[in-house]
Each structure stands twice: as C-alpha cells, then as structure tokens.
Amino acid sequence: MRRIDGLIGGKSVKITSGREADVFNPNTGDVQAKVGLASTSDVDLAVQAAAKAFPGWAGTNPQRRARVMFEFKRLVEANMQSLAELLSSEHGKVVADSKGDIQRGLEVIEFACGIPHALKGEYTEGAGPGIDVYSMRQPLGVVAGITPFNFPAMIPMWMFGVAIATGNTFVLKPSERDPSVPVRLGELFMEAGQAAGIDVTGVLNVVHGDKVAVDAILHHPEVRAVSFVGSSDIAHYIYQVGAANGKRVQAMGGAKNHGIVLPDADMDQVVKDLAGAAFGSAGERCMALPVVVPVGQKTADELRERMIAEIETLKVGISTDPGAQYGPVVTAAHRDKIANYIQLGKDEGAELVVDGRDFKLQGYEKGFFIGPSLFDKVQTGMKTYHEEIFGPVLQIVRANTLDEAIALPSKHQYGNGVAIFTRNGRAAREFASKVNVGMVGINVPIPVPVAYHTFGGWKRSAFGDTNQHGMEGLKFWTKVKTVTARWPEGDVADSSFVIPTMK
Q1: Which candidate in 15, 143, 153, 286 is catalytic?
Q2: In the chain, which stretches have pLDDT less than 70?
Q3: Where do the domains of the chain lie?
C-alpha cells in the first residue's frame, strides 16, 4: 500500500503520530494509499524547518525570489499532465478539470513572478524641513495555509505563491483526502530552487493531518499568519482561535451562489453555463452555481424544460474519460451526504424534477458517483436552500421581479459569488451595485477574478478583512514599516519634547 508522508525541510519525513487515514480512488471506491496524520510535534518540526529557512529566504532579494517562481511555473507546466492525472485519481474530477485547477493556481504564480514591482514601497521627499518619509513591505516570518479537498492544486498555490514570493516561509496543511498533489508541488518547488541556483530548503513544507494538525498550527507561537479555505463553521473557528493567539487570519468559508436569469437573457447560453457551473466537478466548488433564480413565470417554465433536456445530455464518467463532463465525488461519505440533502429537499416540499441518486456507472458500481439532480419551487425557508449541499444539485427559486431576485442572494447567510444573465446593461449595472455579495458575474456563471485582482466573499463566506491573491494577498502576507528620516547639519533646535509636525 502506497504511503504519503510530509515534506519537511526539503525531504520526505515520516509522520510520527502513528495515525493515518485512507486515500480513496473515487472511481473504484478502493483505498489506494494511506496518509500519515501529523501530531503536534510533527507540525512543530515543519514550523522549525520554516523558521530556520526564514532569515536566508527573507534576505534573498525579490528578483532572485522571483526567479525561483519563474522556474516553478516552468516545472509545473512541464508536469501538467502527470499532475492532473494524479489529482484526478484522488479527487475524482475529470482530467481536463484538474488541468484547470492547476492552471488557475499557476496564474497566481505568474503574478508572484512580478513581486519585485509589487513590493515597491512609497516615498515622500521633503515631507517637512529636510524630512523624508518612506515605507516598505516586509515578510511576516513563518506562515501557514490550510486548504480544502476540492482544489488541491489551485488553492495551495493561491496561498504559498504570494506568501513565499514576498519573503515568508510556508507550512501547508492540505486536505488529507487528496494529499499527493500538494506534496508533488513541494517537490517541484525544491527543483525550482536548484534550477535557479538558490537554496530553498525549508521554504515550503507540507504536513498532512486533521484537527490535531490544524490546532497545532493555530496555537504555534512562531506561526505569524494563517490562511484557510473550507466550510464556514471551520472558517469561523480558525478565525477565532487564530486571532486569539495573536495571528493574522484570513478564513474563507462556504457558499450558496445564485444565478439570476432575466427574461431577455440568451437562454441557449444560460442553460449551457448553468449546466457547467452547477454540475461541473460534481458541484464540489465553492464558486459553483447551485441556485438559479428565473425572473417571471414564463422565464422559469422555459428554463426548467431546457435544463431537463440539458441534464439528459450530460455524461458522468470516470475521471480519465475524455468525454465525461464530471466524475465521482471525493468519498462515499460525501456522496451519502449529498443524497441525504436530496431526500431532505423532497421532504421539505420542493419538487424533485430530476433525481440523480440512483445513478450507477457500469463497471464502476463501487465508485462514488451521483447523477445530476434538479429541484424546482424551492422556498427560502427550506434547510436545503439555506445550507451548502456541495454536490451536483441545482435548485430553482422563482422570483417575480428583479428586486425580489436581488434580495435572495443579498439576504442569504453566504455571500461568496453571484451571477446575472441579461442583455440589459442598466439592469446588470444596478444588480452589481446593489447585491450584497463579494464577487459578481455579468453573463459569467463562475465569477472567479483573475490572479492580479482578488478573491473573497462577504458575510459567512469570509472571516477577516483581506482577500486572497492579487495586491490584497500581498497586503495579507506582509507588514508595512514606515520610516521618517532627517539628516541634520549644524546646530539643531531642541525639539525633543515636542511631537514632530510637518511645519
């Protein structure tokens, strides 16, 4: 049985806790590997490796750090196929989708390659008589990322790309459900350092684990900042505990993204977009679109019939099937959770139009597959509307007016993403301005911003005031130091007891 251990100080290190978890092949349902779950001492070993590396890495000039990122980008691109296949084998998403996972992470690495420019501070000459004021951004020290199973390549790179480029050293705690790709990324980062002629030992460390490892990170006195992506309850916990321990924390939580469809929308495009956004990656995306809100009865009836027809064309298959739109979910437990939500929606009184629970893939009956499901006439008081299902389930919530439609995502507990489909520019502009959600798509079903902008939701979708990647990410992973300088000549009046002013 294959065993997956941590990457600490540039080498594979066997976890000492004696605890381990199964890593499944979602296509077959078989256990394909065991992953060691870190103890508090294992996490401490990773933190100490990062702490040892920090002075040298922080002292490496930004241009040389950027050269490592350039090499890392090159190596990830060169290994794209094998990384995608490895990712799919543990997560279940189809290989093409896995390549997208890696590519969206690489785009943040590309942003990080420009870190010398992004790190430039501000300078004011002559702020006062012979006085100059300037600022600089400096790394925090040892920082950490705790990442989810649904994007085992993208989200780690979102975090460590900017954090490392700005001069920090990093401890990554990925999901124990699909741990191999994060380790492989760590190995490629070591190779990137060698190719650039720069020692990066201990700069990027990977430890696997569960709540024990998470708590060890949150309580470790040498960890200066923690970034997290996962469910909202855990995000809230991490924000509270991390802040209580004096750490800088960003914690991204769950989502229930809505798609508003106005009567003038291009329905052909809407249906295609909804199918991809709701069912792609088996709905296991925090930026999936699981709720569609058609405005007006005619729009709703047409959308319903078109979605039924579209669902019939979808192909669910193994992750290596190039013709499949999506593959299995990550574990049997997660499949059962989705199925339970479908039953709950039916019990609550929503109309189950398409039921995907009985789907079986011939030859892969033990795989963690679930077919696409469609609900209509979902009401806002239903638990299935209020909570994140995180599976291939699309819910139709009908609205009579645009204002009514806007109110739905605005009042929902989550505020990650939202989309509107329309040809009406005024309506789209009004929607983007009014809706109480962090990321907005206009005829774009999954509005994940490009790498040089920033990613972050509102309400229970995010805790903390700083977003992921872009300049917001740079702000999170650095601290500002401001210098006020004077170089006097000759006699200086005694002003030691007077607060400095810029007279």
Answers
A1: 286
A2: 490-498, 500, 502-503
A3: 2-120+140-253+461-478, 258-442
What pLDDT was estimated at residue 465? 87
How many other β-carbons are positioned within 10 Å of the β-carbon of residue 78? 11
**pLDDT, position 240:** 98
347-356's contacts with Cβ under 8 Å and 24+ in sequence apart are 348/379, 348/382, 348/383, 348/384, 349/379, 349/382, 350/375, 350/376, 350/377, 350/378, 350/379, 350/382, 350/384, 350/395, 351/375, 351/376, 351/377, 353/304, 353/308, 354/308, 354/311, 356/392, 356/393
Taking the domain 258-442, which CATH number applies?
3.40.309.10
CATH of domain 2-120+140-253+461-478: 3.40.605.10
Beta-sheet pairing, 142-146 with 169-173 = parallel
Catalytic residue status for 286: yes
Does residue 454 sit in helix, strand or coil?
A: coil
- How confident is the model at residue 310, as a pLDDT? 98
Q: Give me 263's structure tokens.
A: 């009567």
